[in-house]
């Protein structure tokens, strides 16, 4: 076999990287474009990532690099603190308390107590512990197709994940059902054991959900109708002799289809849940820190009077550095502290593990990085930037929608935008093949844009916050020409979209690969979708 030589930013060449990954990395750890030449990214800057050959890719999906890849101020802050001290939080350190004080100024007054952890998954795990401790109840309501993390506890509240795990719904420790119709069947015969149970509420999507805007007159309160589904779940839960500990939600739905919650949804759901003795958890991991433009936090889009009891933060808080947080009320925090003393003997192992978790979370280096990220958000006015560029992105995509029948819906706030592709605007039949085909072709032209939703037919925009109007023009222009080509190909075959996608995929090997940005090579059918970022 002919040996390859690595580039200046590689330790080994791409082929060797792929070979070693295949041997040593678990197969469930997926990569983008697996069969069509996965990208090897060796450098990032701002809203761009670069492969080993020096090709630049415009990053439209990496919300983790919130203020841009390798922002110099963030890099400097982390390096300087690491040169001074990196230890756990059992020692007093200014970084921890000053950042907590600074960040809570962005929240409503009642959200004033912080817990530092290492990831969004850990934050949501801790949020559930706080909720169950405070309420003394066990059941959790989540949204169908939700995603809240990879821990065993957070997978249990993530239908986006557990719906695809063989045997998960047979576990007796967590019971899941959707709506009310099959509740009794699912929990029997072990419901009397008072084990923890998770209940799925219908996804409150007014374009593709149970209550669609096209089926109701303009101005209909669909948020209230979806909220009443949660009330029905609460009523049935009480009938079964159980109680709700918490309702957890993303403030804008990501993996479920990239859309905002309908007006009045949270206002009513929060009222129902609290009346039932539960608390409300807002997962801001993907939507917080100014991404929605109009507000710092996504839940604020529902009204200034809408405030959760617990908020979880992750990913963007450290621009990719491992730090996350839970922010809650003094009342919830006090309940948690009281449990630690009262049940120390019976939960000693649990208490020690949690203590270790909280000790490492919020170490001086991680908090220095988080503080630097907040500096950049403030100094570069990135929240306002997200509002302005996001509005321009939405307007540009809506203009694109007028020219392309494949685009069924454009929705979002700030730099959190979804574009849903459909085969027919009347029936709203999802065009998953075409969405994935478009993302593959965009990749060949240096744009990274992936798909989301139950049918993988929603193009998701969650770029670094430094994404510019020029970047919008670039992406929309490429989408315009590629959509026209896809629609033309489909028209030639009487709109047999699936056949077109399969035909293009099977002929990919015959396409020229002289330039990765000029050719339109396609992958096999198994690659016509992205994993969630």
TrEMBL record:
Annotated spans, Disordered: 511-533
Keywords for the protein's UniProt record, in alphabetical order: Pyridoxal phosphate
InterPro entries on file: Aminotrans_3 (IPR005814), Aminotrans_3_PPA_site (IPR049704), PyrdxlP-dep_Trfase (IPR015424), PyrdxlP-dep_Trfase_major (IPR015421), PyrdxlP-dep_Trfase_small (IPR015422)
Coiled-coil ranges per UniProt: none
SUPFAM superfamilies: PLP-dependent transferases (SSF53383)
A Pfam family it matches: Aminotran_3
A GO cellular component annotation in the UniProt record: mitochondrion
GO MF assignments: pyridoxal phosphate binding; transaminase activity
Domain of life: Eukaryota
Compositional bias annotation for Acidic residues: 519-533
CDD domains in the cross-refs: OAT_like (cd00610)
Family: Belongs to the class-III pyridoxal-phosphate-dependent aminotransferase family.
Protein's name according to its UniProt entry: Uncharacterized protein
Species of origin: Haemaphysalis longicornis (Bush tick)
Taxonomic lineage from the root: Eukaryota, Metazoa, Ecdysozoa, Arthropoda, Chelicerata
């Amino acid at each position: 076999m002919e040996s390859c030589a690595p580039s200046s930013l590689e330790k080994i060449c791409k082929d060797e990287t792929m070979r070693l990954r295949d041997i040593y990395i678990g197969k469930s750890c997926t990569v983008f474009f697996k069969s069509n030449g996965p990208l090897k990214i060796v450098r990032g800057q701002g809203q761009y990532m670069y492969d080993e050959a020096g090709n630049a890719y415009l990053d439209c999906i990496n919300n983790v690099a919130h203020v841009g890849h390798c922002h110099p101020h963030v890099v400097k802050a982390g390096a300087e603190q690491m040169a001074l001290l990196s230890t756990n939080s059992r020692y007093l350190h200014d970084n921890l308390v000053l950042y907590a004080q600074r960040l809570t100024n962005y929240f409503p007054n009642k959200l004033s107590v912080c817990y530092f952890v290492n990831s969004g998954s850990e934050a949501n795990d801790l949020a559930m512990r706080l909720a169950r401790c405070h309420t003394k109840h066990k059941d959790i309501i989540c949204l169908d197709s939700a995603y809240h993390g990879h821990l065993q506890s957070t997978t249990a509240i993530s239908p986006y994940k557990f719906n695809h795990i063989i045997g998960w719904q047979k576990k007796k420790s967590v019971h899941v059902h959707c709506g009310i119709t099959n509740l009794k069947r699912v929990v029997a015969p072990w419901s009397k054991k008072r084990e923890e149970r998770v209940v799925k509420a219908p996804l409150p999507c007014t374009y593709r959900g149970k209550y669609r805007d096209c089926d109701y007159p303009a101005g209909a309160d669909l948020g209230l109708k979806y909220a009443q589904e949660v009330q029905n779940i609460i009523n049935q839960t009480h009938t079964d002799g159980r109680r709700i500990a918490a309702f957890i939600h993303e403030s804008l739905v990501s993996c479920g289809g990239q859309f905002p919650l309908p007006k009045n949804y949270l206002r009513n759901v929060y009222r129902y849940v609290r009346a039932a003795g539960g608390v409300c958890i807002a997962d801001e991991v993907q939507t917080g820190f100014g991404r929605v433009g109009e507000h710092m936090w996504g839940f604020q889009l529902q009204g200034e009077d809408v405030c959760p009891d617990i908020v979880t933060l992750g990913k963007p808080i450290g621009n990719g550095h491992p730090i996350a947080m839970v922010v809650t009320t003094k009342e919830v925090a006090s309940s948690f502290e009281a449990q630690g003393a009262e049940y120390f003997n019976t939960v000693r192992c649990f208490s020690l593990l949690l203590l270790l978790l909280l000790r490492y979370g919020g170490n001086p280096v991680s908090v220095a990085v988080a503080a630097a990220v907040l500096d950049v958000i403030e100094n570069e006015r990135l929240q306002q930037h997200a509002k302005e560029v996001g509005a321009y992105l939405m307007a540009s995509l809506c203009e694109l929608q007028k020219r392309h029948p494949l685009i069924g819906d454009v929705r979002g706030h700030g730099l959190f935008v979804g574009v849903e592709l459909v085969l027919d605007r009347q029936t709203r039949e999802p065009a998953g093949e075409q969405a994935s085909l478009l993302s593959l072709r965009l990749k060949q032209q240096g744009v990274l844009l992936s798909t989301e939703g139950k049918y993988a037919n929603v193009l998701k925009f969650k770029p670094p916050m430094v994404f510019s109007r020029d970047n919008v023009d670039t992406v929309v222009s490429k989408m315009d020409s590629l959509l026209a080509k896809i629609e033309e190909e489909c028209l030639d075959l009487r709109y047999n979209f699936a056949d077109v996608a399969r035909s293009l995929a099977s002929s990919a090997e015959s396409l020229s690969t002289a330039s990765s940005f000029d050719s339109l090579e396609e992958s096999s059918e198994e690659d016509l979708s992205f994993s969630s970022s």
